[in-house]
Amino acid sequence: MNLRTPHTRALIAGGTGRVGAAIAARLRAEGWDVYAAGSADGDLRTKAGAAALVSRATTELGGLDLVVHAAGDGFAPKPFAEVTENDWDDALDVTAKGTFFLAQAAAPALREARGVLVIVEDVAAYQAWPSFAAHCAAKAAQAMLTRVLARALAPDVRVCGVAPGAVAVEPGQEERRAAETLLGRVGSPEDVADAVLYLSRAGYVTGTTLVVDGGRLAKSGAGR
Q1: Residue 86 and residue 74: Cα distance in Å, rounded?
Q2: Cβ of 224: how many Cβ atoms within 10 Å?
Q3: 126, 223 in Cβ contact below 8 A?
Q4: Rounded to the nearest 5°, which phi and psi values hold at 22?
Q5: Please, where are the H alpha helices in 154-215?
Q6: CA-CA distance, 24 to 120, in Å (whole number)?
Q7: How many DSSP H helices and E strands does the chain contain?
Q8: pLDDT at 55
Q9: Which end of the chain is less packed: N or C, by CB atoms within 10 Å?
Q10: Sequence-ordered strand ranges (E) for 14-115
Q11: What are 97-146's pLDDT values in tens digits?
């Protein structure tokens, strides 16, 4: 028997990317009504853009039971000495600033529904990658927001994070990335989607992050 979840309305910010699209597809398969938004639907680099996106999704869906922040920018390797202000802003704007203002805009609808905010983080929040300095800093800020927002929105709204490892690997990088994990393989966007679905239903879980990395952090010792 396929048990339909009582929560059925979801906004996926970043829902047109590889991970976001997989989350949207998984939720739809479970009977959710999903608004999968790309950058054209609302610019998360600004407070006004985040508010416009939430307003559009709330109107179309009739409310919000789940909001997923899966959007990101600024993930490109660059030597430390060559990082510019624009690189820094690209990394921080959508990832950290966008997470905060998306949550702020969605809070009334989520409170009304006693809903859930799930933030797609990254193991980069817990590992120091010199070639991705701005990205690591942005993801670390985002991981802290998971905890801050859980406190700010409790008890009406649960806030959880998902921190993927190598789940969207460039062709030719699979073997190297697999060797970094305990399981000896890379993951997939569908692994992240499964985690989001679990957290959407996990009524006693908030203020914490589910790491979906095949044991990468455990193998490197970065999660200690």
Answers
A1: 9
A2: 7
A3: yes
A4: -65, -40
A5: 174-178, 189-201
A6: 13
A7: 8, 6
A8: 97
A9: N
A10: 33-37, 66-69
A11: 999 999 999 999 999 999 999 999 999 899 888 888 999 999 999 999 99
Cα separation, 163 vs 191, in Å, equals 11
Return the SS3 of 46.
Answer: coil
Tokens 């701005």 -> residue: 134
DSSP 8-class letter at 39: G
Q: By C-alpha distance, which of 106, 143, 103 is closest to 123?
A: 143
3-state DSSP call for residue 220? helix
In whole angstroms, give the CA distance from residue 183 to residue 19: 21
Q: What is the SS3 assignment for 36?
A: strand
Residue 84 CB: number of other CB atoms within 10 A?
10
- Kind and range of the H or E element at 94? none
Averages of pLDDT over each 10 residues, the chain, 224 residues: 62 95 97 95 94 97 98 80 90 94 98 98 90 92 98 98 86 82 90 97 97 86 58
The H or E element that residue 212 is part of is: strand 208-212
Query: To which residue do tokens 């991981």 refer?
Result: 143
141 is written with which tokens?
């800020």
> pTM of this prediction?
0.92
- Under DSSP, is residue 152 helix (H, G, I), strand (E, B) or coil? helix
Nearest partner of 201 among 2, 4, 1, judged by Cα: 4
For residue 132, the one-letter residue type is F
